[in-house]
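Escalation from tier 1.

The customer reports that the assembly of two entities below gives different structure tokens on two consecutive runs. Tier 1 could not reproduce it. I'm attaching the input and our single run for tier 2 to review.
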Amino acid sequence: MEQLALFDSSPRWTVSTLTRYLRHLLESDASLQGVWVQGEISNLSRPTSGHIYFTLKDSGASLRCVMWRNEAARMRLALQDGLAVDAHGSISLYEAGGQYQFYTDAIRPLGEGALYQEFLRLKTLLEAEGLFDANRKRGIPDSPRRIGIVTSPTGAALRDILNTLRRRLPLVNVILVPTPVQGDEAPPAIVSALQALNRIVAPDVILLARGGGSIEDLWAFNDERVVRGVIESAAPVITGVGHETDYTLADFAADLRAPTPTAAAELATPITVLDLKAKMAEIGGILVRGMAILFRQKRESAAWLDNRLRLASPGRRLQTERQRLDEMSRRWNAAQAHRLEIAAEKFKGLENRLLTLSPLAVLRRGYAVITKDEKVVTSVMQIKLEDALRVRVQDGEFNTRVTGNG
Amino acid sequence: MAKTENTPIDRLNYEEAYAELEKIVSALESGEQPLEEALSLFERGQKLTKHCAELLAKAELKVQELSGETLSPFQEGE
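Tier 1 run:
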């Protein structure tokens, strides 16, 4: 053994340098840093220092763990021996004890869905504050001109939204704020995107969207900051996050929750370009009918005047007098009935003609609109000999001149 | 009467044209204008209807990107 020591070229360590070296080895291995470890809690101990010591074990091995006071204070989970958990942290080495340990910074219950627990906790909290109340919800405008979009510029969600808007209402102006929608940077980015849209663009409605993913992927939409950002948005917000079955807190805060990004784009455009085209056709009809009504009114008042004039004429009065003298009351009654019949027939004919009346139809039937100095000529009082007149017939216009009064 | 009524129709965007059209329709429906005014309203209404239909037919979605304080056209694709 003495000889071996003399000629041996092996490195020499002190306990401290060796231990420090081991610690360095562990800490520089990325696969041991910031990882989740699944196991069952045992030997749980919480001394007055506030730190928590425990062992994670499974059927084949055990791992000593420590959680410092600061992290321990943030724990919402009641730890107990036997609890199966996912622990997050990094492996390092406790030099004085010569033991490697798992320095834990977060623990969530395994199987129970730690995120779901957190979701429920925050939901209860925000609900109690009234942030999800139905009377907070604002209406979605039915004819938006500007639609703001907060989503990732590269995601399928954006593609789906733009395709849907393009198909339904290509008249709108879309303003996208490219925004990360997962990871730690997502919540503040979403909040500032909402603020920027409201401040700079003032859109009629904002779509906050993300395609499907795991509960962790969608987690940014359960962030309290995002919930408050949605509540504080001046423009109403429609969320379309994940798939039908995914409900996030942002969905509860939104003025309208859509099951998917595509559905969000649909809800933002309740009136489509097809509706608008149909409306245009309808307005065309209303215009023509409006003109028909106008013509009818003009004609009715003209007919009424004409009738009064005839009743007042001497010939008419003479005839009436003669009837009164010549005929007995029965015959007078018959004549009266006959007259009413004629009047009714006349009115019916007029009504039928007017039903299909439009200015073009009038002209098509051979009527003309005559204008002088761009005023419609409705009376001989308006014209004199040699006046230049413009005549409009169904297929065009021409000029003419007054040559006499016929 | 509104200012837009003298604007050349092809310079009106959809919303402006539609707003004027609505006014014309309700004016015509009231039927209180003299014939010549009604006729010119009718003619302008028909032109506006045609203009709106054309705008609807050729509308293309305008997509912009807001980064910082600036709006710029958004390049789709990839």
